[in-house]
């Protein structure tokens, strides 16, 4: 696969979290280099997960043209919206995936 973030046990967790969030969500994730998955050793996941969820929940979403504090705006078009929503819907139904933050969207 492409664009994974491989985390080493000795990594600085704050840098890992900030880099992963920026890599995954900057430009609404609509860039070819967007982080699409993260591999974290089980030994450090318990330290990274709560802080990652906390930071993702802080992301300000809105209209980037009207509010400069917005980190994420709308996706480019209806087709992109449906594609993103299909991934969320898949995760909601999957036995192998778990949504740890978000999982809702405007329809």
Your description of this structure?
The protein is mainly alpha-helical and 107 residues long. 43% of the residues lie in helices and 6% in strands. It has helices at 13-25, 42-58, 78-93; strands at residues 4-6, 37-39. Strand 1 (4-6), helix 1 and strand 2 form a beta-alpha-beta unit. The termini are far apart.
Features:
107 residues; 6% strand; 3 helices; two-stranded parallel ribbon; mainly alpha
Topology order in helix (H) and strand (E) letters: EHEHH
Name the strands of the widest sheet in spatial order. Answer: 1-2
Which whole number gives the mean pLDDT? 91
CA radius of gyration is: 14 Å
- Number of E-type strands: 2
Q: In percent terms, what proportion of residues is strand?
A: 5-15%
Total number of helical segments? Answer: 3
How would you summarize what this structure contains?
By secondary structure, the protein is mainly α. It is built from 3 helices and 2 strands.
Question: What is the strand and helix layout of this fold?
Answer:
Blueprint: E1 4-6, H1 13-25, E2 37-39, H2 42-58, H3 78-93
Parallel strand pairs: 1-2
Helix pairs in contact: 1-2
